[in-house]
Design brief:
The chain is an all-alpha fold and 465 residues long. It is built from 17 helices and no strands. Helix 2 (47-75) packs parallel to helix 4, helix 10 (262-278) packs antiparallel against helix 17 (428-455) and helix 16 (388-417) runs antiparallel to helix 17.
């Protein structure tokens, strides 16, 4: 069901609710990154458990994003979206009440599942209720909410943590979530199902979820011997998933788009590399500013807000530019900017000035703005309109898997160099070494990503499958 029969009031209420939801999930992640040192002190959690607090959320979102997106097309987008809002709100309250770190980690898992249900349906609902002439503007507002969440998260998270405690971050989301759920029940009457043909790919879904979960577990176990066979098992499972999807009538993932559409395939690979190389930056620098520089959570958040603010300011401009300039040019330039900035972060030490970080974070913000919007435009412009849902899902999946891998790299380095211990002053040296190695690896990944970005070729309509 498209926008036919949808009233003007319902269209804009759908945009309001979907935009609030788009703000909540990135805000939560960015705010909690700043609060993690306080969480560690309060709950007595070591560096690895703090990493898992962030990583399990990403894993749950990555694992469930595609399945719920597909299920929403079959069962109804509003239904899945509403259940996602409810689950996200309840799990936020559970996180605020956490008596220990393991309770918090489990709460974060359920938050991730709720986030997947929201992300997998919010954009699809907007696309369903707004006609083509109005859809671009509506989607632009929705995307800007994501950047607003990323921008507000570090500062608000630091402020709330310093003056009201880290639990206040979770409590703040509860009334917003309740308001959003009430608005859905009160104002939105449509269901907006997609094409009802076909069935849900249970086999592919289970294999996909198993492969990603084992991959994350394997990264947490390296360098122990058990980590390597688990890593091999995850790779084999992903290969089997791809083979299964190529012969399934109604697959969870349209593998044919990756095989037949060069722009689509290379643009998705570039997105995966970019998120893998950049997501861990905020996590590591939050620890650095508070542990090495002795900043308060609010001060650390104020420094970290520079990058997403610049992204929010420049992304609409680069998105418009990508309609006139080949996206591969802008996106490749953005990847180059980011590579240089990550390489500069690898040289940060005990006495590095704040001005240095202001400059580097600004550079990363510009680089990401040059990359993200044009790269997304390239993906969406490379497919026929009937594959917009698949293409949108692939963008979200690459983002979440990339973020998960970025945190997985940090987790391995923490396991090897710090171990299962709190980051006390005696551990500042190993932590700084972990950070420098991570940024070096991220810079190498981003450098390779430049070639993936260039290799996509010119953007054009993809072939029908």
């Amino acid at each position: 069901m498209e926008e036919t029969g949808t009233t003007k009031q319902e269209k804009y209420m759908a945009l309001v609710v979907a935009t609030i939801a788009a703000f909540l999930t990135p805000f939560m992640g960015a705010a909690l990154n700043v609060a993690l040192p306080a969480v560690g002190r309060d709950l007595g959690a070591d560096a690895i458990l703090l990493n898992l607090t962030a990583t399990t959320y990403l894993l749950a979102t990555a694992v469930f994003l595609l399945p719920f997106g597909r299920l929403a097309d079959i069962a109804g987008r509003k239904k899945i979206f509403t259940y996602g809002l409810i689950l996200f709100t309840v799990s936020s309250a559970a996180g605020a009440l956490s008596p220990g770190i393991y309770w918090l980690i489990v709460s974060r898992v359920f938050q991730g599942i709720g986030s997947a249900m929201i992300f997998g349906t919010g954009v699809a609902i907007i696309s369903s209720v707004f006609p083509p002439g109005e859809r671009g503007k509506a989607l632009g507002i929705n995307v800007s909410a994501v950047y607003a969440g990323l921008s507000a998260g570090p500062f608000a998270g630091g402020f709330l943590t310093q003056y009201f405690g880290w639990r206040s971050i979770f409590w703040m989301l509860v009334p917003i979530g309740i308001f959003s759920v009430l608005m859905v029940f009160w104002k939105l009457k449509g269901e907006w199902t997609g094409a009802k043909r076909g069935t849900f790919d249970y086999r592919g879904t289970l294999l996909y979820m198993f492969a990603l979960t084992v991959l994350m577990v394997s990264l947490s176990q390296v360098p122990d011997l058990i980590g390597y066979p688990l890593l091999l098992l995850s790779i084999v499972s992903l290969v089997l998933f791809v083979r299964l999807e190529t012969v399934t009538k109604d697959p969870l993932m349209e593998i044919g788009l990756f095989r037949m559409n060069r722009v689509f395939a290379w643009s998705n690979l570039a997105a995966l590399i970019n998120y893998s190389a950049t997501f861990g930056v905020g996590f590591l620098l939050s620890f650095y500013f508070q542990y090495i520089k002795g900043m308060s959570p609010a001060e650390a958040g104020l420094v970290l807000v520079i990058q997403p603010v610049i992204m929010a300011v420049f992304s609409p401009l680069t998105g418009r530019l990508s309609d006139r300039i080949q996206p591969r040019v802008l996106a490749s330039a953005g990847m180059t900017f980011t590579t240089v900035a990550l390489a500069m972060l690898a040289f940060a030490g005990y006495d590095t000035s704040l001005g240095y970080f202001f400059f580097v974070l600004s550079f990363i913000g510009i680089g990401f703005a040059l990359f993200s919007s044009p790269n997304t435009n390239a993906i969406m412009s490379s497919v026929d309109s009937r594959y917009y849902g698949v293409a949108s899902g692939s963008v979200g999946t690459m983002r979440m898997i990339g973020q998960m891998l970025s945190m997985g790299i940090v987790l391995i380095l923490f396991s090897v160099l710090i171990g299962k211990t709190e980051i006390t002053p005696e551990m500042h040296g190993p932590f700084l070494q972990s950070m420098q190695i991570a940024f070096s690896l991220f810079a190498v990944f981003c450098f390779l990503g430049i070639f993936a970005s260039v290799a996509r070729g010119k953007t054009h309509r993809g072939p029908s499958l």
